[in-house]
């Protein structure tokens, strides 16, 4: 396949490769820093990176966050894995959005927990459905231990839930006594800041210590560093630290990230990413307008990497995938993003990632995909 | 404490820091390589590192090892954790040497398995005791799922078990149907090659696919890279790969290691390490001769980082630790290395690491520790 909209990879052209090379050279030429970066390090994380992150989260998430609330992990997958190990045992129930992030669902399944999907609406998780699900479960004596959710720039839908919905969700968590794993992998990549600020994270609205928020440098620096974090109450951080069994996340990678980010360089870099990814998002939305038929609806994400397309007239997902392949383009088939079997009559969904392709490639791939779709919807 | 014999850290003075800096610069200046090193990578590992490792293991361990037998992990702790997750469930029994590596025991405990210690003799695991333990367990209907063992340069004792004992152990594994996690973290650091070659690893003697061998670059390159591996049958490798939930080990670290090790540089570096650590081992053994009283016995390791000292006359371990601290020296108290409570009458043990200190510091710290010991035994 010549053009792929399937994978939510960051654009390698936006990696700060040269700055990483400079940061590495600086680290390794200072004997004291080199020794720290190359020796075993604290399981919690490399102190300068923890401090940089705490300062940044304090500025963006409101005060009160210190390094005590943080644990550096191997990407946000590492943080989700530790949260799952902390919260879930064999036979427990965990709620997930329908649709949800495929990688996280597979991590949650490792814990032995049962995944129960909760339908999403136009604004994220459908809280009416969520309430009914919780009541039904309570009647059968089931208390879900946790919800895994991406309220901001959701994968795969691109949706962001408003503040009021977040508050309602926290009330449900209180009433039905469950914890929340808030996956906030894309928060830094917000493209519409002029139309208002982002709703606060669930973590920052939570007053009961119910939220473990996971974050990552994979979208802002580079996935190859394998750096993410968990943001949580100190007691949860300490317990996840005990579960972290692989001798800690690479101090070398962490030192490169911390050295790279000094003196505001991280913020400058994120601004550059926002510009670049905004243009890609815009290119995809306008290409969809031009090339997709009226039977298609799609989300208009204000951040992140994904647009979620629904085909309202019944199109067989397998037939569409083959037809797209013939056009030389692929995407992620939506049904893969559901924990259960999507209900019959559910529209055929496509997750389109605009992150990795160039602007012309986005135009071309959406055009080809539109041709495949039009050939099937009539 | 001014001088510490407590931690088995590699000597940071032996890190190939400059060569790492050069390797990183080369990687990041080549766009294609930089993209691979900074992007998400295969869970199995960075292909050039897998190939380097397979070639090296083929040369040192006998033929038949390919990348299909390998999984790159976050240090050998990561490999031990994956092996534990693969082999052990809640309530299972796992055998461990008494004494054993503290870090591994804590990883094995995360799996929910019960640790049953098996006494060591002069030559490693006491196979007569092991046989009786297995028979007793069989009579009570217990089948241990696995043994965790370090047959080569054991931590904490420094012992290496001979080939015949290894073959007997594999027969026991066959007869009582258990798997073996062979932790071979120190194998490259063999100091007495002129007195004969090392016994083959359990992995290379095994004909039944019972051995998962774990290895690491932490002792030979630098712990801060967090690079280790599991060497096993492809079916076990594939299953551990599915359990690896953190998006893979850093491709960036792996690319640095692979680039560093090109054209035989890894072997040349290991030769340099062997020279340096051999001198430290010799310095410690001769300092023990000079400064320790006749009531002390110690092992004479042919590789690795540790000497294990037994004080044959009853010395209270806590009193000795305080007394040593007053002398400005510390060590690892031997009782920490036992899964159960050491039996009453067990000698007081000390694990002394000679890896991190300079030659003069080894002499000085053993002298001080000898003073503390003499003050209590005589």
Bulk shape of chain A: globular
Specify the helix fraction band of chain A. 40-55%
- Gyration radius of chain A, rounded: 21 Å
Instruction: Count the DSSP helices of chain A.
Output: 13
Largest interface: A-B, 51 and 51 residues
Secondary-structure element sequence of chain A?
EHHHEHEHEEHEHEHEEHHHEEHEEEH
Range of strand content of chain A: 15-25%
Largest sheet of chain A: 8 strands, mixed
Unreliable residue runs of chain A: none
Q: How many strand elements of chain A? A: 14
> Which structural class is indicated by helix and strand composition of chain A?
alpha/beta
**Spatial ordering of strands, largest sheet of chain A:** 2-9-8-7-6-3-4-5
Oligomer: homodimer
Give the rounded overall mean pLDDT of chain A: 95
| Alpha-carbon distance between the two ends of chain A | 24 Å
Topology:
The structure is a homodimer of 378-residue chains.
Chain A: E1 3-4, H1 17-29, H2 31-38, H3 47-61, E2 70-73, H4 75-87, E3 93-98, H5 102-110, E4 114-121, E5 124-125, H6 127-139, E6 146-149, H7 163-176, E7 179-183, H8 202-205, E8 211-216, E9 228-231, H9 234-243, H10 251-260, H11 265-291, E10 296-298, E11 306-311, H12 317-326, E12 329-330, E13 332-333, E14 348-353, H13 359-377
Helix pairs in contact in A: 1-10, 2-10, 4-5, 4-9, 6-7, 11-13, 12-13
């Amino acid at each position: 396949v010549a053009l792929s909209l399937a994978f939510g990879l960051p654009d390698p052209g936006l990696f700060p490769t040269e700055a990483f090379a400079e940061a590495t050279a600086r680290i390794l030429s200072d004997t004291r820093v080199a020794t720290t970066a190359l020796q075993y390090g604290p399981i919690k994380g490399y102190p300068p990176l923890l401090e940089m992150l705490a300062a940044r989260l304090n500025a963006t998430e409101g005060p009160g966050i210190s390094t005590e609330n943080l644990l550096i992990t191997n990407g946000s997958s590492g943080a989700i894995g530790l949260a799952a190990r902390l919260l879930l045992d064999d036979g427990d129930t965990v709620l997930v959005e329908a649709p949800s992030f495929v990688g996280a669902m597979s991590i949650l399944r490792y814990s032995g927990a049962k995944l129960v999907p909760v339908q999403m609406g136009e604004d994220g998780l459908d809280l009416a459905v969520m309430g009914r699900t919780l009541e039904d479960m309570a009647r059968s004596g089931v208390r879900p231990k946790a919800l895994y959710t991406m309220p901001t720039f959701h994968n795969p839908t691109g949706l962001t839930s408003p503040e009021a919905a977040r508050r309602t969700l926290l009330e449900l968590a209180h009433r039905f006594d469950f914890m929340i794993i808030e996956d906030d992998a894309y928060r830094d990549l917000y493209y519409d800041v002029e139309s208002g600020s982002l709703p606060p994270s669930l973590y920052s609205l939570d007053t009961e210590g119910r939220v473990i928020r996971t974050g990552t440098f994979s979208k802002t620096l580079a996935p190859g560093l394998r750096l993410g974090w968990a943001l949580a109450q100190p007691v949860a951080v300490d317990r996840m630290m005990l579960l972290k069994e692989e001798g800690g996340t690479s101090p070398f990678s962490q030192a490169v990230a911390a050295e790279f980010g000094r003196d505001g360089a991280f913020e400058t870099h994120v601004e550059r990413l926002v510009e670049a990814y905004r243009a890609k998002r815009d290119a995809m939305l306008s290409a969809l307008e031009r090339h997709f038929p009226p039977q298609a609806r799609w989300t208009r994400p204000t951040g992140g990497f994904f647009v979620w397309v629904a085909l309202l007239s019944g199109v067989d997902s397998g037939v569409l995938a083959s037809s797209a392949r013939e056009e030389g383009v692929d995407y992620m088939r939506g049904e893969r993003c559901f924990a259960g079997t999507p209900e019959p009559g559910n529209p055929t969904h496509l997750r389109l990632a605009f992150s990795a392709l160039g602007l012309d490639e986005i135009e071309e791939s959406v055009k080809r995909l539109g041709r495949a779709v039009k050939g099937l919807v009539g």
